[in-house]
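Hey, I was hoping to borrow your eyes for a little while. A protein chain has come my way and I'm curious about its shape. Take your time with it, there's no hurry, and the full record follows here:
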Amino acid sequence: MRLRTLPLSVAGVLLGILLAVADWKVDPWTAVLIVLTTVCLQILSNLSNELGDVLRGTDTADRQGPQYGLNGGEMTVADMKKLIGLFVVLCMVSGAAMTWRAFGTLLDMTAILVLLLGAAAIAGAMKYTLGHNPYGYRAKGDFYVFLFFGLVAVMGAYFVCTRGLGLHWKLLLPASGVGFFSVGVLNVNNIRDMKTDAANRVTVAIKLGARKARIYQTVLIGLGWACMAAYCLLCWPSWWHWIWVITLPLYLIHLKGIWTREDRALDPMLPLLVMSTFALCLLMGIGFCAYLF
């Protein structure tokens, strides 16, 4: 299930929930169901990713990242397909419960919109490496990660928490910030795996080459920080809004590792960026809610 990636998916929705708490009265059970649905979607994505890579011969014994259940031999393809089916059902049940709790129905237009977005998220989670034409093999993963882990995660969570009443354009900034950091996590993975991916997979890192992929990583981190800072400048009232800045050393350590490490030695930079982004989102959300305590 690649549990070390789960804080990244939770980071965006957690920030959206906390920003909603700062502006509105949020139902706690709705927030819990948002997080649960997000975790189920992330696990579904991870399982589908592993199955797709193994079926296409991308993950081999030369893989630079950690070995998981299927490519490590502990599971069969049939086992993985059953597990994927289970998590599709869990995503549907959890998403429907979240929608019902937030809107009191599954039948009005707003609830239907949320359900359709959920269906798109399930499809997006599975199509990264599965199917006849997976977007993860055509260098389109960065766009979809930005969309679902950034814009949909932050703004979607805020939308559901406020029952569709409080969404505003400024949220594009923190949502984009989380999106840039999330693309950075994918890019680290792709830089690490360039040698094994090159045979049958096209990623942005492979298109750019090793040096430019590292420049791209630096730009992604810079854009993420710029978006977060711009949002705080637009919502200036409290210095507490800036508490997330204390995570800066973690991002600097990450970038140093990106420029000084190769292949398997890059792997620790992935969870470092995941946890740095989670910490930033949590602290930023707490900072905006500080007046409540």
